[in-house]
């Protein structure tokens, strides 16, 4: 009689074991044929850079500051390419995803803390997906918001279906949805006939880009830049990429095979993230060229949808003529729905990666999705119910504020994925001489990590103040500053703990490698994989924890 499987199981094997090493890749074939075989993981990663959380920041940035913040989108995209390249390389070379690699070098207690922190970050992104998906359903089918919020829970059925069709087909579906989003915004921007000279000039950062004045629409250029950066570079993408880069078969005994995997994974990632850059750039250009300057008073998805069908807000006759048919607003809602569904797939996979890596727990993807989505639905439902008796504008603003404010958790979680990633890919012990970061990658990597961490912490007081709403008092402002500084101190203290543990773990790995006289880290990590604990050991660990 077959043993009944538990819903929650012990997991200490290869990352995302069901799909690890399942995709064949050609050897000694042409560049484009080989690239096609490696294409896919980059698309799943790129989804996180064009999810509903990015839309409002980019369009509002264009409305308020014209093309000034185009350079911020470009810089964010270049930093993302660098970080994702390192994440994929770590997974391919070490045969561990980022969560596994951090947990292997840190204490159990720190692993649990980092797991909880990263779970909050994933939930924050899930709130944006719930809001985006529910609003898209409301706009397209006039479904009441409360019902639409519950319908978004039903995407777990979509996930169940996808798990049955194979990972390669999931990649193809994600690529198709990205193309839908890209088509919608290319079409709308093409009709708007933007000032391309000014748009290209905006790609060069100036002193005005990060200035604290002027304030337009309650936002300074610095706040707009921080919003775009915060919505672009997300921690769960680094965990995800380090796991799904291992879906391609690779012979770790053959250095050329590993090098090919690293090279084409980088090509795949950079191509897909370039597409994400264009989507975000098109969103900002929409804010400048599709609408009249300052015409969009409601920056929420509701306001943008209505503005695309309101001829008085649009910038030229061609757009006005097309808007009368309703196609501009409908396409916007379709793209919003596609974006939310894409993020559903990647968010669930990311959650499974961090759970298995940090706390060695594994559950079915559908159950993982159901739990995360139900938790994310709660604050959205509370927000809808609290504003149900108010005007529609109040309801729209409240949902938009909830989505933007939820991103505050990303400022906490991002340094704890970036710093360990950089330290491990800079290490000869971890990566070997051939695959450790080149000097230029190391230099730009440290600049990116320090800049993003610094900007996120610098913008934290304003993010906390945003929770109080527009009519914040002096006392509330002081209170928000105190909360922000307490959180900043906590983040710095936790970072120090992480770095100390990472250093100790790296020294321990060096000692183990030396004592076993192995020629490379591959052999040692392969041994660790073979010696992965059993379910009985998992139960024993649980008893010891209690």
The first-to-last residue Cα distance is 32 Å
User: Which radius of gyration do the C-alpha atoms yield?
Assistant: 23 Å
Largest sheet, strands/sense/barrel: 2 strands, antiparallel
CATH third-level topology: Hydantoin permease
How many separate helices? 26
What spatial order of strands do you see in the largest sheet? 1-2
Instruction: Estimate the mean pLDDT confidence.
Output: 80
What structural class do you assign from the helix and strand content?
Answer: mainly alpha
Description of the molecule:
The chain crosses the membrane at residues 30-50, 65-88, 109-128, 134-160, 172-190, 271-291, 370-388, 408-425, 437-458, 482-500. Its main location: membrane. This is Divalent metal cation transporter MntH. It comes from Companilactobacillus kimchii. It is a multi-pass membrane protein. By secondary structure, this protein is an all-alpha fold. It has one domain (12-406): Hydantoin permease (Orthogonal Bundle), CATH 1.10.4160. 74% of the residues lie in helices and 1% in strands. It is built from 26 helices and two strands. The chain has helices at 31-38, 41-47, 52-65, 70-94, 98-104, 108-141, 145-153, 155-165, 167-192, 196-201, 221-232, 235-244, 255-290, 301-307, 317-323, 327-359, 365-386, 392-406, 408-413, 415-425, 428-435, 439-458, 460-466, 474-516, 521-530, 535-545, and strands at 9-10, 361-362. It has a two-stranded antiparallel sheet with strand order 1-2. Helix 9 (167-192) runs antiparallel to helix 16 (327-359), helix 12 packs across helix 16 and helix 20 (415-425) packs parallel to helix 24 (474-516). The longest helix has 43 residues, at 474-516. Mean pLDDT is 80; it is low at 529-539 and 541-546.
């Amino acid at each position: 009689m077959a043993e009944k499987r538990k819903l929650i199981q012990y997991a200490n094997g290869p990352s995302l074991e069901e799909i690890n090493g399942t995709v064949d890749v050609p050897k000694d074939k042409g560049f484009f044929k080989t690239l096609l075989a490696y294409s896919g993981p980059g698309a799943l990663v790129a989804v996180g850079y064009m999810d509903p959380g990015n839309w409002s920041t980019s369009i509002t940035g264009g409305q308020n500051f014209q093309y000034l913040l185009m350079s911020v989108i470009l810089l964010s995209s270049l930093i993302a390419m660098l970080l994702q390249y390192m994440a994929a390389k770590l997974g391919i070379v070490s045969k561990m995803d980022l969560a596994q690699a951090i947990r292997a070098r840190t204490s159990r207690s720190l692993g649990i803390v980092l797991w909880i922190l990263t779970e909050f970050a994933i939930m924050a992104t899930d709130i944006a997906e719930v809001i985006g998906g529910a609003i898209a359903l409301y706009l397209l089918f006039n479904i009441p918001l409360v019902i639409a919020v519950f319908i978004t829970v039903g995407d777990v059925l979509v996930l169940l279906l996808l798990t049955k069709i194979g990972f390669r087909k999931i990649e193809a579906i994600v690529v198709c949805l990205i193309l839908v989003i890209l088509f919608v915004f290319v079409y709308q921007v093409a009709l708007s006939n933007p000032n391309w000279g000014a748009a290209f000039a905006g790609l060069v950062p100036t002193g005005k880009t990060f200035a604290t004045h002027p304030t337009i629409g309650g936002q300074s250029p610095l706040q707009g830049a921080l919003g775009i950066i915060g919505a672009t570079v997300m921690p769960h993408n680094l965990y995800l990429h380090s796991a799904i880069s291992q879906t391609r078969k690779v012979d770790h005994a053959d250095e050329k095979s590993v090098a090919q995997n690293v090279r084409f994974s980088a090509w795949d990632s950079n191509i897909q993230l370039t597409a994400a850059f264009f989507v975000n750039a098109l969103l900002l250009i929409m804010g400048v060229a599709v609408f009249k300057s300052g015409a969009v008073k409601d920056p929420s998805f509701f306001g943008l949808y209505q503005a695309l069908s309101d001829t008085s807000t649009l910038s030229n006759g061609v757009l006005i003529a097309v808007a009368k048919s309703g196609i501009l607003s409908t396409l916007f809602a379709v793209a919003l729905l596609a974006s939310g569904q894409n993020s559903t797939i990647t968010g669930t996979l990311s959650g499974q990666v961090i759970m298995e890596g940090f706390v060695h727990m594994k559950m079915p993807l559908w159950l993982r999705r159901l739990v995360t989505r139900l938790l994310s639905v709660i604050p959205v439902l509370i927000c809808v119910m609290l504003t149900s008796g108010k005007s529609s504008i109040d309801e729209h603003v409240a949902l938009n504020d909830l989505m933007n404010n939820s991103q505050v958790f990303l400022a906490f979680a991002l340094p704890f994925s970036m710093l360990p990633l950089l330290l491990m890919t800079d290490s000869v012990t971890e990566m070997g001489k051939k695959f450790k970061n080149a000097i230029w990658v190391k230099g730009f990597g440290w600049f990116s990590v320090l800049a993003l961490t610094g900007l996120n912490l610098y913008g934290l007081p304003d993010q906390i103040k945003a929770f109080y709403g527009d009519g914040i008092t002096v006392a509330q402002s002081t209170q928000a500053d105190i909360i922000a500084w307490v959180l900043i101190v906590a983040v710095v203290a936790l970072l120090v703990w992480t770095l100390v543990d990472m250093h100790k773990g790296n020294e321990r790995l060096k000692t183990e490698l030396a004592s076993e006289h192995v020629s490379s880290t591959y052999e040692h990590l392969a041994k660790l994989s073979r010696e992965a604990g059993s379910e009985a050991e998992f139960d024993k660990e649980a008893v010891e924890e209690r």
